[in-house]
Design goal:
The complex is a heterodimer of chains A (about 250) and B (about 600). With about 250 residues, chain A is α+β, with helices and mostly antiparallel strands. Chain A has 2 domains: about 5-110, Ubiquitin-like (UB roll) (Roll); about 115-250, Fumarate Reductase Iron-sulfur Protein, Chain B, domain 2 (Orthogonal Bundle). Helix content of chain A is about 30%, strand content about 15%. Chain A has helices spanning about 35-45, 115-120, 140-150, 160, 175-185, 195-200, 215-220, 225-249, and strands at about 5-10, 20-30, 70-75, 80, 95, 105, 110. The termini of chain A are far apart. By secondary structure, chain B is an alpha+beta fold. The chains are: A alpha+beta (about 250), B alpha+beta (about 600).
């Protein structure tokens, strides 16, 4: 086992304007390695398998326990979190690429700020009166908590958007993560006061009707969020809202 | 006079709490964060948040919460702010509940509470085992609301480099680095709140996130801020050792009935489930019958070290013990601990519903931090600090589920105080020191980029981490602490020879890391030398050569200041505010 090695092929791109190149790395295998620890090794010894000096790989990461949502990338073709990608479970050479649906910054780092803008557009929050002491919150039964909690586990990794065939510049589709947050807040006893506005925000171009029901999102989600259920529920609510708005106008 | 400008650095619970209070009071905030704020380290907190709501008919009160916190911290925390925090806690839980945090519920629809370490009460509100994530998201959503209303401007992907100080030493802004374009800029502000978290990275591997380097604290320490109680570092008893980090297994596992044990016979070869109860050594329950598995973290950590290193009972001779949940039914575990069980299964491959987890202590929390007054202001006028980056709430050892509380409470306190300070601040003379500070930072950057040395910064960091973990964690000897400081001095010297393998000016992570590393090294000296000089044992600080607490000499806050001299930081001591609870011996083998 002493000389067992790990082979990685990493797609490198120095900036959005530079050409992409693949670099191969051979590292000593260690028990419990994941794709992040492999990249830490490369940073400490930035030399390719061919012996050519290179730069440490640029990538987003933070918590390394699949809860902050930073280190999403494509590993052997699959969108996933690099921290939980254990080397021993991956076919080699391990091919590591950036997410393809977001503007590239450098190497494996992309700009996913579109998700945070989407959350703003659908007012994904509970509009409380203020932070001063107003007594206890609304009573919530455990069954309701158990329905909300999975939706509230979304780590904004954007894997669901990466794998969605409809998430592209042509459609401007908001993607599954944002729709699930609409369901979360529309079901909250106080949050639902903004329900109609949220549904209207999902009614136009790029809204929920762009979904093609490919169901890739729910398969790739690292937090097993019931995304397709959320999309079905909110589709229905958006249609009802459209009908109501039509009748009112 | 123009509306005051406040800068908040850091977007975890403390930073976001401060932002919300300022925005609500009509102020505007520039919020700086290395990562998108929703990805801050607060997401990693698992088990819960303490408040004496007394919803279990136990007679719990904020006064008891206060006493547990002071006692758990071995009387080193100033009592006035801790008392205020414990009194504010129930209303903070209510507020979080109103913001939509999906706390676990009782059948009647009320908040559920569980037990945590260092208390005999069910005082911890929780959202599964991902409470930090849920709290951070609730605050993140409120901040997004204020952002949409134009009261908050986010600078995500910017790293704080230094404070801008005027000729009188008053803060007038910050300098920061755009981690994408590598642009260096200064930003004007009338008050600054640092909420930049813990310093786990100086120990190499810890439960902390990648951004928890302590670089910002160290930068203003080097600009004249006091750093207090640096030697108090919490090593969490139950972590999963890993190649890239140590992953936390929440204390809530024990709060829900998890038991820590090893086979009584070293090298017991039987499958774990076949070892009968009588042949299992539940050492925490035997040694601490009253608190059992829920002794405070410093006590549990030392007990595990004793079992492994003195009694030689580590699993298969390895530094590991069992944390066992396999006797608890699956549905309860999923409802209350699902998040952490997923982590274990994903990263280790075993299912903790069926087999005991293998765990070992790991560096987890920074009790010390920037010295602040009761208004959360550092000794640099205009620079406030809140959250794990300051020292105020946990004394010599933090109790589980008090950190989320202290972050939010301190942020709520710092925000309005900073605003009030800023409203009364006379205008700066000249440019307030901006040009000089930009020039100083540009010079540091230029030198680093041009350096033609041979040292790889990531390798230097590994050596630092090994050195700190070996000498400055659970068991401390003065000889080892001196060696640790000597090693840091050597690393500082070698740092001058650092060579960036990347000299580009676009998303250059080596460059940003090398800047952080210098600050990590300077701060490491504060931790090591603070520990060296404190010849007693108190809370997480344990010296076998000085096994007793020594109130006469060391019931004092350590205050370190930067000298720039080879001898390292200057250390002085300040009396602790003990006006409410008289110090008494701290022991957990019986009820206190």
């Amino acid at each position: 086992m002493a000389n067992k090695t790990v082979s990685l092929e990493i797609k490198r791109q120095a900036s959005p304007d530079d050409p992409a190149v693949w670099e191969t790395f051979e590292l000593d295998w260690r028990p419990g390695m994941n794709v992040i620890s492999a990249m830490m090794e490369i940073a400490a010894n930035p030399v390719t398998a061919a012996g050519r000096p290179t730069t440490p790989v640029t990538y987003d990461s933070n918590c390394l326990e699949e809860i902050c949502g930073s280190c999403a990338m494509r590993i052997n073709g699959k969108a996933r979190m690099a921290c939980s990608a254990l080397i021993d479970n991956l076919d080699q050479p391990i091919r590591v690429e950036p997410l393809s649906k977001f503007p590239l910054v450098r190497d494996l780092q992309v700009d996913r700020s579109v998700l945070f803008e989407n959350l703003k557009a659908v007012q994904a929050w509970v509009p409380i009166d203020g932070t001063y002491d107003l007594g206890s919150g609304p009573r919530v039964f455990p069954q309701q908590q158990e329905a909300s909690y999975p939706l509230s586990n979304c780590i904004s990794c954007t894997c669901c958007m990466e794998v969605c065939p409809q998430f592209n510049e042509d459609t401007g589709f908001v993607g599954a993560a944002t729709i699930a947050q609409v369901k979360l807040f529309n079901n909250h006893p106080t949050g639902k006061v903004l329900k109609e506005e949220r549904l209207r925000a999902l009614a136009g171009d790029g809204g929920i009707q762009e979904c093609g029901f490919a169901q890739n999102c729910v398969e790739v989600c690292p937090k097993q969020i019931p995304l397709t259920n959320a999309i079905s529920d909110i589709s229905r609510d958006v249609l009802l809202q459209k009908a109501k708005d039509l009748l009112r106008s | 006079m123009a509306a005051p400008r406040i800068i908040v650095v850091g977007g975890g619970l403390a930073g976001l709490s401060a932002v919300i209070k300022i925005a609500e009071a009509g102020g505007t905030v520039d919020l700086f964060s290395i990562v998108p704020v929703k990805r801050s380290h607060s997401v990693c907190a698992q088990g819960g948040i303490n408040a004496a709501k007394n919803l279990k008919g136990e007679g719990d009160t904020p006064a008891l919460h206060f006493d547990d916190t002071i006692y758990g911290g071995d009387f080193l925390a100033n009592q006035t702010p801790v008392k205020a925090m414990c009194e504010a806690a129930p209303a903070i839980i209510d507020l979080l509940d109103r913001m939509g945090v999906p706390f676990n519920r009782t059948p009647e629809g009320l908040l559920d509470f569980r037990r945590f370490g260092g208390t005999l009460f069910n005082r911890t509100a929780f959202a599964g085992a991902t409470t930090g994530q849920q709290l951070l998201y609730a605050l993140d959503e409120q901040v997004r609301r204020h952002e949409a209303a134009g009261k908050v401007k986010k600078y995500e992907g910017w790293e704080f480099l230094s404070a801008v100080l005027d000729s009188k030493g008053v803060a007038r802004g910050i300098t920061a680095l755009d981690l994408r374009t590598m642009e260096l800029r200064s930003f004007a502000a009338d008050a600054i709140i640092l909420a930049t978290g813990g310093i786990g990275a100086i120990f190499g591997k810890s439960t902390n996130s990648v951004v928890c380097t302590g670089s910002a604290q160290s930068a203003i320490f080097q600009q004249g801020a006091y750093y207090a109680n640096g030697e108090f570092i919490q090593v969490h008893p139950t972590c999963i050792p890993g190649e890239d980090k140590l992953r936390l297994m929440s204390e809530s596992a024990r709060g829900e009935g998890g038991r820590v044990w090893v086979p009584r016979t070293a090298g017991d070869k039987r499958p774990v489930k076949q070892i009968p109860a009588a042949e299992r050594f539940y050492f925490l329950e035997e040694w601490y019958p009253k608190y059992g598995n829920l002794v405070p973290r410093d006590i549990a950590t030392r007990a595990i070290h004793r079992v492994v290193y003195e009694l030689g009972l580590g699993l298969d001779g390895q530094p590991m013990v069992y944390l066992d949940l396999s006797h608890i039914d699956r549905a309860t575990l999923d409802r209350k601990l699902g998040g952490i069980l997923d982590i274990y299964e994903k990263f280790v491959g075993d299912d903790p519903h069926d087999v005991p987890m293998k765990i070992f202590p790991g560096m987890h929390y920074t009790m010390g931090g920037l010295w602040v007054d009761f208004n959360q202001m550092t000794n640099i006028p205009g620079i406030f600090a809140a959250g794990e980056c300051e020292y105020q709430y946990h004394g010599a050892n933090r109790l589980g589920a008090n950190s989320l509380l202290s972050c939010i409470f301190a942020g709520f306190h710092a925000g309005p105080n900073a605003l009030q300070y800023a409203q009364n601040l006379p205008a700066a003379q000249g440019d307030g020191g901006h040009a000089a500070e930009i020039a100083r930072q540009a010079e540091i950057n230029g030198r680093l980029l041009k350096n033609e040395g041979t040292e790889n910064p990531f390798k230097l960091w590994r050596e630092l981490g090994q050195n700190m973990t070996q000498h400055v964690t659970v068991t401390r000897y003065n000889k080892g602490l001196q060696q640790a400081d000597d090693k840091i001095v050597e690393l500082l010297d070698r740092y001058r020879n650092v060579n960036l393998s990347d000299r580009s000016q676009w998303a250059n992570t080596s460059f940003a890391f090398a800047r952080q590393l210098k600050n990590m090294l300077e701060l490491s000296r504060v931790v090591a030398l603070g520990a060296l000089q404190r010849d007693e044992s108190r809370g997480a600080h344990f010296k076998p050569d000085f096994p007793e607490r020594n109130d006469e000499q060391f019931l004092k806050t350590t205050k370190a200041s930067f000298t720039g001299q080879p001898a390292g930081p200057r250390i002085e001591y300040e009396p602790v505010d003990i006006q409410f609870i008289k110090p008494r011996p701290r022991r957990y083998d019986a009820a206190k």
